[in-house]
Amino acid sequence: MNENTAKTENNDTVAGTDGTVSAEDLGIDTDQPRTHAESVTKLADAMLRYAVWPATATALVGIVVASVMYGANGGVAALIGGLVAFGSSLATWWLMRKTAALNPMMVMTGALGGFVGKMIILLLVLMVLREITWLHTKSLAYTMLAVVIVWAVMDTVAFRRTKLPTLIVDGDDR
């Protein structure tokens, strides 16, 4: 048996067509993505899974604190801020899933463009809503900021914890 062969549980010798041993040859079922699109989709789903509950909790804390400190106007403003931040973060997840099948450079362009676009939209929403006199602007802004920051931190945690291959080599590239 050379270095490119292995033994299975039944003591059978297996090797790939090019002499290499793959996980499938050994009967190992891996959940690793095989394409860049699968990798981006897996990451997007993990980011959503990790961020939804902490962001929801952050928005609820913002609503409760603003309601206690500034009454109904503060609570409504915090609710709007939380919903806008939540919606913009979900738009980022949607963008990742929609661009997953594109060239990796285009996916990065989409991600960076989406981030800049999200910040511009959040700024515009804040600028428009601050003109509403009964709405407590600081409650809106602080809740929006807190939800966006918590979502971004949880995105980072999801990225660090999700097992993704560094390189995905197409079968034709060997």
List the helices and strands and how they pair.
Elements: E1 6-7, E2 13-14, H1 36-99, H2 104-129, H3 137-161
Antiparallel strand pairs: 1-2
Helix pairs in contact: 1-2, 1-3
Which descriptors apply to this entry?
3 helices; 174 residues; 2 strands; 2% strand; mainly alpha
What does this entry look like structurally?
This protein has helices spanning 36-99, 104-129, 137-161; strands at residues 6-7, 13-14. The chain is mainly alpha-helical. It has one domain. The protein has a two-stranded antiparallel sheet. β1 (6-7) and β2 form a beta hairpin. The radius of gyration is 23 Å and the shape is elongated. The chain starts with 5 loop residues before the first strand and ends in a 13-residue tail after the last helix. The model has no long low-confidence stretch (mean pLDDT 81).
What's this, in brief?
The chain has 174 residues and is mostly helical.
Q: How much strand content do the residues show?
A: under 5%
Please, how many domains?
1
Strands of the biggest beta sheet: in what spatial order?
1-2
Count of distinct strands: 2
Compute the average pLDDT.
Answer: 81
Distance between the termini: 23 Å
The unreliable regions are none
The gross shape turns out to be elongated
Structural class: mainly alpha
Radius of gyration computed on alpha carbons: 23 Å
Mind describing the biggest β-sheet? 2 strands, antiparallel
Number of helices: 3
> Order of SSEs, N→C?
EEHHH
The helix content is 55-70%
